[in-house]
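HUMAN:
Could you generate one sequence with tokenized structure?
ASSISTANT:
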Amino acid sequence: MHITSRDNSLLRQARAVRDGKTKDLIFVEGLRLCEEAFRSKLSIEAIIYSEQLAQKERAAATIAQLAGVAKRVVTVSEKLLESVSYTKTPQGVVALAVRPESSEFVLSNLGEHPLIVVMHRVNNPVNVGAIIRTAEAAGASGVIATLNTSDPFSPKALRGAMGSAFRLPVWAGPTYDDVIRWCESRKIETVSADAESPVPFTDIDWTLSRALIVGPESTGLSNSELEAADVSVCIPMRGPVESLNVSVATGILLFEAARQRRS
């Protein structure tokens, strides 16, 4: 089906999903991310793509795969795709997919000695996506995004995660207290990242069941939040630098955990 009107109901729906006005669907843009959605067996509600993109061999193959599982498949002009696209330069294809399960249930089968990443009040979706991608790369068991954290399935976060949000279990929406209680009930020791901690991150045993808690760059975790954790660790730094980007800091901590777990 070819759409020529900007006011088409599907395009209006796509813009609503893009803008976060509906939470049952997610906005997946770009060929690579759509390929990841297909491989991850997401339920695809609709595919919207430009006729120009379909002329490319790799794109045509991907669109054919998506069309085989999508409920609706439509083509539009490049100009019309601009009215839907999240990016300044349209990526040629958009998928509307059912939001992956993101309740506590997804973390019910973590195995022995899990490694969890908890993002608390991390409100930059780019950082949220980067942390999820890094968590998967470092072998984390799952990710928790608390109530005041940017939506891990927003378009910008999905772009940063590059498909990791489709594969790694993500629990979105619990309060900080919910997370602490959940970890305590499962004997998962919580480790908060704190620039003022006297304990270097290399001095603790990461091979135990651990939940790494990272907070916002601007303020870090509050004193009460730090006190609720079992231990706090720091990343020793030189010079006048006071802090690191939260996704960079998370990567440093996670790969130390990965190093110890390989030993």
